[in-house]
Amino acid sequence: MEYKYFSKLFILISIVYLLSCNKLQINNFHQNSDQTTSQLLTHNFNYQRNTVSEQELDPPLVLVFEDDYNGLATNGFSSVDSILFFGTGKGYLIAFDLNKNKVVGKKKFGLSTSAPPTIYKNILYQAYDSGDYGLIAYDVVEGEKLWEIENNLTSSSPIVVENKVFYQSNQGKVYCCNFLTGETIWTADLKCFGVNSIAFDNGIIISSNLDGSIFALEYTSGIVLWEKSLNDKIFANPVINENHVYISTYNGYLYEIDMEEGNIIQSKDFGIPIYYGVTVDIDYIYVPISSGELKVLDKGSFIEVWSNNGSGPAASSVVVSNNYVYFPTLGKHLYILDKTTGKKLQEIELEGRVRSIPLIINGRLVIASEDDNVNIFAISK
Questions:
Q1: Total number of domains in the chain
Q2: pLDDT over 90 percentage in the chain
Q3: What is the DSSP string of 160-226?
């Protein structure tokens, strides 16, 4: 009798524990801006996929927090104020308070995700590349799912503009949905396979795909404005800067394309695969190459200004601030370089291979690494 009682009690406690570990609701959460401050945004207010940061941390940096989570964190983070949001390879959505260094919410929706979430008006939009749903909309204040799109799995981080959500499925369909209801407004079937995120600026959506095709779509209708084929595989996100689109390819080419007409302005052959998008600031283009080399080009001429060799292939796009370049590699390193000269200012060794773009927020640098680790660095005092 006693055994049955304690067995039932154990089961009840286990159920309560599991339910408490699968809750994502932040009552005092308030988003001051209409857009997320994800590192995938430029100056926090657009979707050019250009990893330029207004914030920076002077080296040397020291590790102030490290913990492992249920599945490797995705290739990027999104944050609002002190709350950091990220998905994991096992389908969890996690909210982490940077001020308290603790998880304040966690909920499982799909099997896995590889794209950072987007937050808009207290609604979190998370894409999934496996499971039953390609995209879910979740109210983080009320703690409830608002809607989902079944199937149509994707590796594309969503975009939200003027109360409309845009995302591209892995099968090459671009969707435009109402941000609150999920009702489809338009769909554009590009009939190609894509594994990266779409980019947006000045009313134009840019889609680059695995077969080398690039599309420019008018954002209110989904009408294709122009199409171009580079006859080369594209894994990297398209990057927009000053009405120019920068495309990196598997065969090692970098293209600069006029965003309005689709004409190629200039190109450069590096001869080595490029898997991640470039970063473009006022003067330079930063190209992370799979050989482990970071090439920096003059923006106007594509002439090399400096280069730096890291340990192992590039792990993501680099993050560029006013004075520094933050350069992660699959060789378990994060390098901080002088932006002007490329001089190595600090070399940080991690326990595993880097698996995300660094995010600099609220005096912290956040980066994911294997196995399942989230690492947080701050300025050494």
A1: 1
A2: 62
A3: EETTEEEEE-TTSEEEEEETTT--EEEEEE--S---S--EEETTEEEEE-TTSEEEEEETTT--EEE
CA atoms of 330 and 177, how far apart (whole Å): 36
pTM over 0.85: yes
Query: Which tens digits make up the pLDDT trace of 92-104?
Result: 888 999 999 999 9
Question: Tokens for 250?
Answer: 């598997």
Rounded CA separation 58/380 (Å): 9
The first and second tokens of residue 109, run together, are: 């929706």
Nearest CA-CA partner of 279 in 252, 314, 246, 230: 246
State the Cα–Cα distance between residues 375 and 381, nearest whole angstrom.
18
Average pLDDT score over the chain: 88
Structure tokens at 174: 């671009």
Quick: pLDDT tens for 243-268.
999 999 999 999 999 999 999 999 99
Following DSSP, what letter does each residue of 302-331 receive, concatenated? Answer: --EEEEEE-SSSB-S--EE-SSEEEEEETT
Q: What value, to the nearest 5°, has the Cα angle with vertex 204 and ends 298 and 280?
A: 20
Residue 371, burial from CB neighbour count under 10 angstroms (0-12, 13-18, 19+):
exposed
Residue 113 sits in a domain of what CATH number?
A: 2.130.10.10
User: Which structure tokens are listed for 155?
Assistant: 């590796």
- Domain extent for 108: 2-379
